Amino acid sequence: MKTCFFIGHRECGERMLPVLAQEVERHITEHGVTEFVVGHYGGFDRLAASAVREAKKRHPEITLTLLLPYHPHDQFIPVPEGFDGTFYPPGIETVPKRAAIVRANRYMLEHSSYLIAYVSHPSSGSREVLEAALRRQKHGLIHVTNLAGWYPI
Fold first, then answer.
1. Cβ atoms of 117 and 144 closer than 8 Å
2. 151 in helix, strand or coil?
3. 28, 38, 55, 60: which has the fewest Cβ within 10 Å?
4. Buried b vs exposed e over 24-55: b needs ≥16 C-beta within 10 Å?
5. What are the pLDDT tens digits along the chain (153 aa)?
């Protein structure tokens, strides 16, 4: 199974939805991605989930999973409409809450074949994930697409 993870800024606007939807479609048809994993902490995550839900209408074999950075026992989040399930990465139970999102993102980065990013400015946690992904890409461990386009890939 090929997995694609999303990372991007909270302040991503609706204008990115058509570009994101096209990229999701390309990942399904050209790369054979069957599983998409997204967080739920901002505009880009919301748009990514929307793009995948729309793609599921044409490709019912794909799945959409919500990444949970906090243990479901501590912060229960029901499976949102249009999602196939939730995922809490193993081994992060003891991570302090302030570092949970970073650790969950790192786990997904290490366990995904593809990353679709929207990183448009340099000072953010999304930039750090993108840079780590780019280092992994140099070793053939992941394929990175940054929809913001400015960041050197």
1. yes
2. coil
3. 60
4. beebbeeeebebbbbbbebbbbbbbbbbbbbb
5. 899 999 987 677 678 899 999 999 999 999 999 999 999 888 899 999 999 999 999 999 999 999 999 988 877 888 999 999 999 999 898 999 889 998 999 999 999 999 999 888 776 778 888 999 999 999 999 999 999 875 444
